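call fold(seq) -> tokens
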Amino acid sequence: MRRRCRGLATGLLVAAALAAAGRAAAQTTTTRPVTTTTTTSAATTTTLLPHPFSAATAACVHQARAEQRACHHTGGAGCFTAFETAFAKCFAPGAGAKCATKCASSEGTCFTKLPTTKATCRSACATGLKNDSKACRLIAQGDNIWAGGDGSCLSTAQATFALCRAVCADLGADCPTAFKFCIANCQNL
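ret:
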């Protein structure tokens, strides 16, 4: 009986490690162009990585970022607003500029809300750990379904909590990623 419990525990740990590795692999990024196609019975969608800027737009964006850095180094106020204006001028007049302004504004809002979003995420992780720990204490003594009883359950709950906290810590990467995909839809000069 004890061997079966160890075998089940080992199997669960391997399955959890493989599942975690699959999630980690799915979150990696590449720098080469990749096309992802998803096909369902109703529709097909394709997601392309953002394209590079045209030469004129790239030079203009580089200049706007340099001006923003200089503004920050001198302690100037309103650096982001000045950058938004200069950045929008780097795109096609009209629709391109309006799109770039919207993207830059959305990125600013994302970063502004980031502390609140992270706090909410961390709170959800703590609540999940509390609920999981409470559920682990309800496992009957000698119950073999968890292969290690409540000790294994508590280890799994702690691992889930650690993964949740890691996801919360990486939320800041979502803002620039969303910006890159947003700006890719704006017309270049």
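The first helix runs from residue 2 to 26.
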